[in-house]
Structure formats: C-alpha cells, structure tokens
Amino acid sequence: MRILLHGFGSFPVVFWHLIRHARASGGAQEWAIILTSDHHEARFRELLGPDRVTVLTQAGGQPKAGEENWVYPGAFFRDLASEKRNYQSDPSGVQRSRGMQMYRESRRFVEKFGPTHAFVSQVEGFDGKAFIAAAREAGAQVVVPTSTRNLGRMFFSIDDFETLPAHAFRNSDRFRAEAEEFIRTFRTAPKSARSLPPVQGELLDSLTPPLSTRMAQALRRWFLTPNGFQSDFLRVSLLNNLPGIRDWLWAIRIKKNERLCDITSVDKLPSRFIFYPLQFTPESSINTPAPYFLDQMRAIDAIRFAMPSDCTLVVKEHPSCILVRPSGLLRQLLKTAGVVVAHYRVPSNEIVKRAGLTISVTGTATFEAMIQGKQAICLGPNFFSGFLGGVCPLDELPMRIRDRFEKEYPESDAVSAVAAILNVSYPVIFTCPGTPGEPVLRKASIVAIYAAFLNHCCRADPEEQKASA
Q: Is the pTM of this model over 0.85?
C-alpha cells in the first residue's frame, strides 16, 4: 500500500503518531503527506524524508511546463465555495488562481508519489476537495473518516459527501439485532450527535510548538505569501489564546440572540408544522457537501414556498452557533411570513417528535427523525440521505412535502439503515487534537484507527470483494 495523507490543521499530529505505530507494528505501507500549513513540516521531513512531504502554498501561481491544459475534474466553483475561510472576500480572480494552484500542487505530488490510497484527515475546504480530485484522477482509493453522529462510531467514506462504501450493504443483516436495540434505546433515551466512545490510557505528545513559534510561523505565512493574510485567522487565533475574553464575548452574544424567538417551550408549538433546525456555519458538515445552502435562507425560502398554506415552518438556532452567529438572520426570520423561531434551548428531539416533517440540508435532525419513525427530507448529501429518498431537488420539494407530511417512517427500514451503517463503522475516535480530554491522542485510539483503516481497505478492495461474493 502506498498511502498519501492529507493533513489539515492539527490532524497531522494524529498521522505522525499513526505512521510511527504502523512502522512499530511491522506494517509495510509507504507513506507521504500533503500538509496545508508548515506547522509540522520539519517533523514529517524527518519522519518520511523530504521527497515524501509537500506543503500547499495556498497562493496563486502560473502552471509549470506541461500543466497548461490541466482542467479541474469536478465542479470547480462549487468546490471553491466550500471554503470556511474568508478567502471569498478576495477578488474573484484571486480565488480562482489560488484554487487552481492548490489543485495543480496536489496533482503534481500525487503523480510523483503514485498512491494506492488517499487518506483524508477532514475535508474542511477547497484544499481537501482538490486533494480528492487529484487522487481520483490517479486511481487511488479515497478514504475519509466520517462520524456516524448519534451512533457514536466512525466509518470511512469513499468521497467528500459521506457516501457509505458499497460493502455496507453486504451481509448487513447480522447487525439487525444491534440496530433494533439502538433504535429502541434511542427512542426512550436519545444520544447526542456528538457521542464518542470512552478512551483512556497513555496520552501522546500533542507536538504543539511554543506560542512564540506559532506566532512567528503565522506572521511568515501571512506576510510572505501573496494574499496570505486572512483577518479571520487572526481573530480566531486571538480568541482561542484569550479564552476569558472569548467566553465573555460569547456570553454577550447569547444574551442578545436568545431573546430573538417566538416559541419558548414545546407546548407552544403550532399544530401543523415542518421543522428546520439551523446548522452551524461555517462548518464542514454543510460547507463541504452543500455549499449552495451556506445562505440558509435559500433552504428556508424553498421550504416555505413549497409547503401548504395551513402549515408553519419552525426554525431553531443551533445551540453552538448562537454563540457566534450575528443576530441578523434571526431578526430576518422573525419578519419572514410562514416562519416562527423556537428558542435555542427547546429540545430539538421533542420538536422532531411533534413535527409533521423534518427538513435539513445535512443536519442530524433528519437522521434522528428516521430513528424516531418520522419522515424527513435532506436537501444535501450525507451518509443517511440515501435512506430518506436521496437528496431532494428543489423542484421536487412540494411533492415530497405533500407525500411525507405526517407520515411514519417504517421501522423495518430504519433498522436496515442502521444495520448497514453498523456494518462498516468502528468504535473509533477520529477527532482533531485539542478536543477536551484529548481522546484521539491516546495510544489506544491510534491503534484502533490503524486497525480500522486496514480493515476498511481490505473490505473495500475490488479483489477482496470478488473473493467474498
């Protein structure tokens, strides 16, 4: 196996420990990595050798000889829109140039290394999209760690849309009893979408350089890279290093935003309504698969234009996003016909139970509705949208609302869906370092990630599939 890693943010720390564990275990894999920043470049050059490491410049540039006719093999401008950073405030030509340069640098390194597998840390923006596009062109198997949300596990998707691997549906019936138990338990005691299996044991090195070193690296990257300075990076960095001021600002935002609502308790919900929970933005769960809906008024307008006149659309702010989202959206919703705003503390699970239908772009509420035996609609792709009829085109939304409103989701179908997910998922944590308790930076987590990755690659291999058919 020739494994090319995509190291976004602090995820390279996980990969550094993973490679060391693989080698200590006698693994014969060859490794290389594309880094999105130079934070850990020196460590990986020492670990892998200078020819196996590259750092994306994230600056525009001219193609090298032979690259003039390279064309991005996907929806280039849609993928550019997936960026969480404020690159989108740059001139359009700068955005285009930067995007193509990232793609060319990724493809150049992919062609040089020749990977069989492309292991993506997390697709948080265009750099991840470009990495996947280049890896696919080279015929590499794409592997994207993906949370199963309420199930508290993870699986390896085959793309940046959370698509389940094909072997999820082979021999999945053996997981039906476990799926039935999960659904039965969830209906009486719902589990959070951020459920994680407990991990203890040896804590590994976070490889975090001193603050002065990090500041010097950031200044060099911002001011020595054309168009490299991003004010949002500076704002986030300052807030993360000044938690007292950050929390004080968040508390003010909460006090300001929580007053912007119509409904303060479950008993005040309308008699006939559709539920649309706002998603956290910017966030990879919506930026990556469905950037068209980053302006969530597009989804809200589509729903209210499509729903019957005797129906109300209940919208609720995401409990985490009320800390950071400006109040303008909630103020606009309070003046939008057909919409009422629920207080962010009203339990979403209780709203789902009472709703005639739950609709989201890629949010967990639609998965929870399915588990609760309620119908739901997804406007964007995720690992469970296929079990809900697939992504709903906007021109089909009126028909789907009419056909599914106040209808039940068959329990047998819910069991089959959960069983298929369990069939390819693992009780493994793959989060970024810095998560409270550092669950991923434990020796047991690294061991589990490596074993799960090898198991997935074996099961997803075409020859292995033929042998087990």
A: yes
